[in-house]
């Protein structure tokens, strides 16, 4: 296999963010067919063998090693690009008086101005120990890492609570602390609204909608997707709400989750508070009792509208003209096409879309289904589907679709070519950490789908702000030039898809009673 190349790095460790950067550098090298950089765990070795790499070449790779696997193209250039991305780190001053770099949490204690927050992105087997070290050093923690056990998460959060610290995560990919975006975050204004989120792209969606309404956030505290489960019992959500209640700059609080435990949600929200709280609890399974100062919302757009109202500002306005766009699309798409095929990079956006579609009577299959009988492997060729392409089964061998939009290109063309597809539904997530030009990557595939006579309509939602590095206006223009309909929120995108697929254009301009 002359076009397959393996390079090992014995006893070498870099965090998962730099692994992603190295893999992205490989993919962006001209002529490369496929490539990745991973730790040499047995599971990762199995993946590389499944991709066609020789087992004999991987026999000496151990779990403490890095392995770079590349197929096709200018291998040496790809290796050089990946090594630069992973191993070349500019020195950045820690403080005005101490510009030394450090390699461990313990070493930060020697700094004249020790940091008060640690971002931890290491393999799950090591993440718990590093988080304990940071908590012991008096730091708040953003634990980006996954694969941390439930018991470890509870222990970490209890230790943080005992020290009045924040333990965000595990799997907390988004936060904005004192104006600094951590992980996947958007460029947003400072303002009077504090956000607590047990959902990564949910946090990004609400911070972006708040910014686009002309307001801003004090803090965005990501608590990890399991925090509002029965097991974790909202340990960090309660701590985050308390910290925002005590923050003089925060006038109102927005809580975001999908789907939370009803019992835990009620315990957190049926209590006194000095500030108004809006809880956008997507997919909550039963009604809950809440205190008078708490407003419940069923989706993220409704939650943002309510919290903006709570600080005395005008509600966010949706864009006009959606009814005309839906009607035009219905006239163009062949009547035999009735299925929605949703391909998402954001898990919360996928879940929210499925929830809205099901409320309009559609059975939606998914790899993260609303019910077991709606699993993706039970879908038929003309079924409605919404797929979260950020789930592990899709990212084992490819970069996350926020980082590498190319992961969706083949799927867009394949799903669009199916004879029953009426709508290809997409999200495009901008901000720090995301691809530099996701719309530019996706637009040609969207144009190909739209060129099919009587073929499907592409409906997209662009999550982002005017200040994001990609520029939301230019991203929108690229997809509109390809023929896509751009909705103003993820909610509106889902409703537009339902309107076109069911031939009920009025659904596209659904308005809530305010």
Structure, briefly:
This protein has 514 residues and is of the alpha/beta class. The chain folds into four domains: 4-87, no CATH class; 115-171, Rossmann fold (3-Layer(aba) Sandwich), CATH 3.40.50.720; 172-317, Rossmann fold (3-Layer(aba) Sandwich); 322-509, 3-Layer(aba) Sandwich (Rossmann fold). The chain has helices at residues 16-27, 42-50, 55-58, 75-87, 124-136, 150-162, 200-212, 235-245, 262-269, 300-310, 322-332, 347-359, 392-395, 409-417, 438-450, 472-481, 490-502; strands at residues 4-9, 34-39, 66-71, 117-120, 140-143, 167-168, 174-177, 180-183, 190-198, 217-222, 252-257, 277-281, 294-297, 339-344, 364-365, 384-388, 421-429, 457-463, 485-487.
Task: Please give a structural write-up.
The protein is an alpha/beta fold and about 525 residues long. It has 4 domains: about 5-85, no CATH class; about 115-170, Rossmann fold (3-Layer(aba) Sandwich); about 170-315, 3-Layer(aba) Sandwich (Rossmann fold); about 320-510, Succinyl-CoA synthetase domains (Rossmann fold, 3-Layer(aba) Sandwich), CATH 3.40.50.261. The protein is built from 17 helices and 19 strands. The strands form 5 sheets. The chain has a 6-stranded parallel β-sheet, with helices on both faces. Strands 10-9-11-12-13 form a 5-stranded parallel β-sheet, with helices on both faces. It has a 3-stranded antiparallel β-sheet with strand order 1-3-2, with helices on one face.
Kindly state the percentage of residues in helix. Answer: 25-40%
Which blocks of ≥5 consecutive residues have pLDDT under 50?
90-100
CATH class category of the largest domain: Alpha Beta
User: Mind summarizing the main beta sheet?
Assistant: 6 strands, parallel
Looking across the biggest beta sheet, what order are the strands in? 15-16-14-17-18-19
Oligomer: single chain
Mean of pLDDT: 90
CATH architectural arrangement of the largest domain: 3-Layer(aba) Sandwich
How many whole angstroms does the radius of gyration measure?
23 Å
Shape call: globular
Number of helices: 17
CATH superfamily of the largest domain: Succinyl-CoA synthetase domains
Extended strand count: 19
The span between the termini is: 64 Å
Strand proportion: 15-25%
CATH topology of the largest domain: Rossmann fold
């Amino acid at each position: 296999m002359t076009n397959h190349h393996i390079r090992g790095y014995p006893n070498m460790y870099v965090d998962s963010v730099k692994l992603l950067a190295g893999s992205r550098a490989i993919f962006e090298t001209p002529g490369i067919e496929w490539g990745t950089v991973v730790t040499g765990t047995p599971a990762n070795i199995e993946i590389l063998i499944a991709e066609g790499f020789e087992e004999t070449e991987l026999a000496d790779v151990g779990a403490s090693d890095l392995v770079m696997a590349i197929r096709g193209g200018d291998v040496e250039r790809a290796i050089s690009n990946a090594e630069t991305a992973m191993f070349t780190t500019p020195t950045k001053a820690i403080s005005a008086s101490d510009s030394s770099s450090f390699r461990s949490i313990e070493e930060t204690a020697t700094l004249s101005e020790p940091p008060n927050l640690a971002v931890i992105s290491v393999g799950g087997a090591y993440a718990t120990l590093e988080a304990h070290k940071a908590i012991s050093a008096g730091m708040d923690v953003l634990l980006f890492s996954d694969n941390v056990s439930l018991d470890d998460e509870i222990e970490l959060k209890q230790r943080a609570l005992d020290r009045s610290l924040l333990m965000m995560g595990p799997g907390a990919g988004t936060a904005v602390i004192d104006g600094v975006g951590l992980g996947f975050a958007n460029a947003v204004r400072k303002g009077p609204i504090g956000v607590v989120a047990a959902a990564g792209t949910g946090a990004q969606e609400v911070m972006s909608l708040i910014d686009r309404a002309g307001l801003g956030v004090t803090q965005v505290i990501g608590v990890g997707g399991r925090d509002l489960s029965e097991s974790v019992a909202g340990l960090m959500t309660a701590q985050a709400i308390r910290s925002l209640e005590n923050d003089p700059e925060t006038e109102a609080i927005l809580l975001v989750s999908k789907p939370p435990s009803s019992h835990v949600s009620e315990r957190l929200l049926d209590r006194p508070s000095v500030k108004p709280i809006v809880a956008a609890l997507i997919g909550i399974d039963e009604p809950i009792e809440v205190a008078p100062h708490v407003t419940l919302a069923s989706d993220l757009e409704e939650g943002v509208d309510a919290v903006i109202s709570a600080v005395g500002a005008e509600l966010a306005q949706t864009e006009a003209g959606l009814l005309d766009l839906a009607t035009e699309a219905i006239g163009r798409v062949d009547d035999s096409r009735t299925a929605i095929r949703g391909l998402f990079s954001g898990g919360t956006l996928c879940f929210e879309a499925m929830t809205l579609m099901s409320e309009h009577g559609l059975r939606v299959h998914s790899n993260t289904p609303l019910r077991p009988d709606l699993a993706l492997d039970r879908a038929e060729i003309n079924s409605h589907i919404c797929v979260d392409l950020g789930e592990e089964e899709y990212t084992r061998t490819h970069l996350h679709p926020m980082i590498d939009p190319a992961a969706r290109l083949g799927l867009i063309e394949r799903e669009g070519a199916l004879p029953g597809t009426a709508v290809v539904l997409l999200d495009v997530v901008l901000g720090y950490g995301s691809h530099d030009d996701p719309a530019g990557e996706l637009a040609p595939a969207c144009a190909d789908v739209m060129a099919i006579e009587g073929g499907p309509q592409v409906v997209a939602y662009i999550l982002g702000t005017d200040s994001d590095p990609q520029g939301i206006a230019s991203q929108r223009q690229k997809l509109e030039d390809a023929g896509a309909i751009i909705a103003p929120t993820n909610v509106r995108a889902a409703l537009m898809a339902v309107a076109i697929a069911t031939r009920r254009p009025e659904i596209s301009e659904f308005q809530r009673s305010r």
